[in-house]
Amino acid sequence: MKQSSRMVQRIIPASVLVLMTALAGPSQAQTSDSTRISELEKKLERSLELINQLSTKITQMEKSVTASTTSPAAPAQQAAKVEQLEKSISEISDNLSRRATDTGLPMHGFTDVGLASSNEDQKNVLGVKGRKGFNLGNFDFYMAPQFGDRVKSLIELNFEVSRAGAVTTDLERLQVGYTFSDAATGWVGRFHTPYGYWNTAYHHGAQIQTTITRPKFLDFEDKGGILPAHTTGLWLNGKFGTAAGKINYDLTLGNAPALSTDPANTSLSSLAGAGPFSAPLKNGTYAGSGTLDMQMAGALTHRTMTGFNISFDPGAAEGLRLGLHGLRGEVADDSVDLNRTRLGMFGGYGTFITDQWEILGEYYHFRNTDVSGRTGDHNSNAGYIQVGYNTGLWTPFVRYEQTRLDQTDNYFAVQESGRSYKRSVVGLRYDVDPKAALKVELNSTRKELGPKVVDNYPEARVQYSIRF
After folding, report:
1. What pTM did the predictor assign?
2. For the chain, which residues make up each domain, given as ranges?
């Protein structure tokens, strides 16, 4: 029995090592990635199965030791079995360690196809209506290779179809990081700007978000978003626990975006008569045709943008998160007036996410200043609230979103999408399986094109999205 005890003492630590090894690798991956979480759960299940199997073998061997103590050959036979078992445990542990720390280049992705009918005035000229019919969404690839325990990276390449029907390629994220501790990970490269909740929780893979569309004002820059959804620069984030709950934080420093105009854009630049951002047209519509340029290659005159996001997860209310966020930087445009605007955004958000409920709400207040010295200070705001309820396979959802954007503020007047609007959304999601979703969504939008000129339009969408 002494040899049996020694055998147990030698095998149990090795078994625990298997479990710890399985847990160590995935913990370094980004917790927001649903695929990584699924892999972690599978590895944990496999490790627990191995532990149970090893415990059973130990029990059987102890019984064998007791039953065969009268045999002269028993000690030698048991020693051989122990040695073989320890060898098996060592091989399993080595395999798990290699998988945990040397992830190689596993590639994952998302894609979606859909059907839509829209009456939106996409060119800001009444009478020009939106598109109808089948459409292709994104074909998105991402990789998250790790190099040891501390160096990590995230690379996302996206193929999408433009409004003109051309296939374009975007390097959406290219970030390399170093983990100092759970409380601090530093990143450099191009990443999703960490304001609010939506912009970092849901990327270009449509399958991971409940709805088909993002809130209109939070869309990506080339899709009509009014904020820099991406940043090229430095990002420090982390989390630490307190007695009351967990605190999460993000700090960013990067290139300030620019507002780039397209003189050939038929959305009024050729009709304005005095450049794309002059006074309103005869029918009262505005002449903005600019979009945000994220300055990935740098700029001739370097301007920076700083940002923060701090949130609190109270331990007493599981699923709840409350946060504050802000951005500040100077944004120049290439209009005929060469405006420069000091963008200042501050706001708050809250989420409540459980197995059944998904409640999201975000608020953005803009205090922008025309540093060109012509129009002064301007106040605008934007926000949304979304509620979904998961019944298992079905998730009905509703969302209301609204912006009030000062049209004397060059930052919004220059942007093609910088118009005030209200939108109501209702829809239904059906999870075909954990990696595929079928969604139906209806919305009604009221968009201001100019003084007393409004575009009211409905939209209907169906989408089938998958991840792999």
Report:
1. 0.75
2. 2-101, 107-467
